[in-house]
Write a structure and sequence with these properties.
heterodimer; A: mainly alpha; two-stranded antiparallel sheet; 13 helices; globular; B: alpha/beta; Rossmann fold; 4-stranded antiparallel beta sheet; 10 helices
């Protein structure tokens, strides 16, 4: 009861997504609605990667891999396990299945690799993402190269945004909790953090597993939104796309990651009329951005702190 | 309080410490001097668990062997290390740095008390408490690094070259505070290249040369010993 009362505002916010979703489905055409849903999924990916890359400072390039694990495990789950369950039960089941499977993958990858730093960690996580993709591509049981289809459309605007809100809140509260500064300490200086009595391995693993979990949830939502998944959706390029969102938003800024996810998702669609030339515009934009605001849109600050205006962000 | 017996540390093929033994008694300031590459920082890193020794033992309070413990467990026992080169968390404020120093402490009143103590020892930190610590001067960062370590309430403080790269006047302030911290009951193991200052405030001292202890005496005797004067004090 106490817990309910303390979280009344977030819970109301989560609940509000259903009426909002209904309203949108009546007014907005389905193409725009699809983009809006993608913004939610990408925001979830960017915020969860930001916990690993931006806040804890461990450069991971394997986020698409975790997303793939979540997408495929949840899809297999809804096709073979919870087939026929009512949606209200099936949805949480597949989200949990996808998230937990990805978290487990995160733990398995994280334990041996998190002792590596910088480039080395980036390369091993990149390798992991590719391994996942190739393994799925060659597993006939989940469709292999044909892809996997036929999942019921369990996720919609409301469930995606409800999950996005929960994801952002969980990560926000974690890093702003009294002990949450320890994540930042690990990023700033691992040796000093260890010398202060911070168990650096524990924080790195926590960030990795939690980040992977939410990537898995995002994957599960994605799979059940479009109803068909293929390994081509989870290539190295997808990982890079999420990294770009994090960097563009400002490493370590949660609100920055959300804004960048929204901007980049819309931009990819808006520039579609230029066909392949849009990649040029996209890259030019990134270069200009890095020249003028090297710290990202918000630097290390949140939109709630007005400090992000000041020149101090440019570091 | 701290007893080290026959400690060996290797970095791959480099045999950095070759059988070092030393003791630190409760309440002392013990100084370890030596030139670049003698193994001073390595010794501190081994004590605080940042680098695992290949042989030998480190005894804490005569009983507990700590040479295989992880760094955070060693901090919990009451040893805190101020790493070389003022490793403050540059993008956090002074206050946040201090809060992180108290990471293992749960008692809020105690933490507040610790912060008050830090501000009494280093009044400049109070003025700067909302400033990002990367914008502090070198001396202020060193003060912050020491203050942050004290937040863990260590019984033994390991200081790695607190005078590194600082102006003589700032060095004097820092050494004065080190003595004050010691007088308040914290034992100190001090590693220094500034042999003159360090030996003057120390009860005892050790001279480390290419991984071996070559001299051990009271601070005063070492200051006057001809070998030390010739090798480290430039006489």
């Amino acid at each position: 009861m106490e817990l309910l009362k303390r979280n009344a505002v977030p819970l109301l916010l989560v609940a509000a997504q259903w009426p909002v979703g209904w309203l949108l489905s009546q007014t907005v055409n389905s193409y725009y609605l699809q983009i809006i849903v993608y913004i939610g999924i990408n925001a979830m990916l960017a915020v969860s990667l930001n916990l690993i890359n931006g806040i804890t400072g461990q450069f991971s390039l394997g986020h698409a891999g975790f997303m793939a694990v979540g997408a495929y495990v949840s899809a297999a789950c809804s096709l073979f396990l919870v087939n026929g369950w009512p949606a209200a039960l099936a949805l949480p089941a597949i989200l949990l299945a996808g998230g937990l499977a990805a978290a487990l993958a995160g733990l398995v990858v994280g334990l041996p690799t998190l002792r590596l730093r910088g480039d080395y960690l980036a390369i091993t996580t990149l390798g992991f993402g590719e391994i996942i993709r190739v393994v799925i591509l060659n597993t006939a049981a989940v469709g292999g190269a044909r892809g996997l289809g036929g999942m019921p459309p369990l996720s919609d605007f409301a469930s995606v945004y409800a999950c996005t809100i929960v994801c952002v809140l969980v990560i926000w509260r974690l890093v702003h909790s009294p002990l949450g500064k320890a994540f930042t300490a690990v990023r700033e200086d691992e040796i000093a953090a260890a010398a202060m009595g911070i168990d650096t391995t524990r924080y790195k693993i926590t960030a990795f597993v939690l980040g992977a979990f939410w990537a898995g949830v995002a994957g599960a939502l994605f799979a059940h939104f479009i109803g068909y998944i293929h390994t081509n959706s989870f290539t190295f390029l997808k990982s890079v796309e999420v990294v770009v969102m994090v960097v563009l938003g400002g490493m370590g800024s949660i609100s920055g990651a959300i804004i960048a996810a929204a901007v980049l998702t819309v931009l990819t669609e808006a520039l579609r009329f230029l066909a392949d030339y849009r990649m040029i515009i996209y890259s030019v934009l990134l270069i200009v951005m890095m020249l003028t605001r090297p710290g990202g849109l918000l630097g290390r600050h949140e939109i709630t702190q007005w400090r992000f205006w000041s020149s101090r962000t440019a570091r | 309080m701290l007893t080290i017996r026959n400690l060996h540390v290797r970095y791959g093929a480099v045999h950095a410490l070759q059988g070092v033994s030393l003791t630190v008694a409760a309440g002392e300031i013990v100084t370890l001097i030596g030139s670049n590459g003698a193994g001073k920082s390595t010794l501190l890193r081994a004590i605080s668990g940042l680098h695992r020794p290949s042989a030998g033992e480190i005894l804490w309070k005569g009983a507990a062997q700590i040479e295989t413990l992880a760094p955070h467990r060693i901090v919990a026992l009451g040893l805190c290390h101020v790493p070389e080169g003022r490793q403050v968390f540059a993008n956090l404020t002074v206050r946040e740095n201090l809060d992180l120093g108290a990471y293992q402490r749960k008692d809020k009143a105690e933490i507040r008390e610790g912060i008050e103590r830090a501000y009494t020892l280093f009044p400049i930190l109070k003025e700067r408490q909302q400033q990002l610590s990367g914008t502090l001067s070198g001396g202020e960062q060193q003060m912050l690094a020491i203050a942050r370590a004290l937040m863990a309430r260590p019984e033994l403080l390991l200081l790695d070259e607190p005078s590194l790269g600082l102006a003589p006047l700032v060095v004097q302030t820092i050494f004065k505070v080190i003595q004050e911290i010691n007088a308040q009951g914290t034992t100190i193991l001090l590693v220094e290249q500034n042999a003159h200052m360090a030996l003057r405030i120390a009860q005892r001292g050790y001279v480390l040369q290419t991984g071996k202890i070559v001299l051990e005496d009271s601070g005063k005797n070492l200051l006057n010993s001809p070998e030390v004067r010739a090798a480290y004090l430039g006489d």
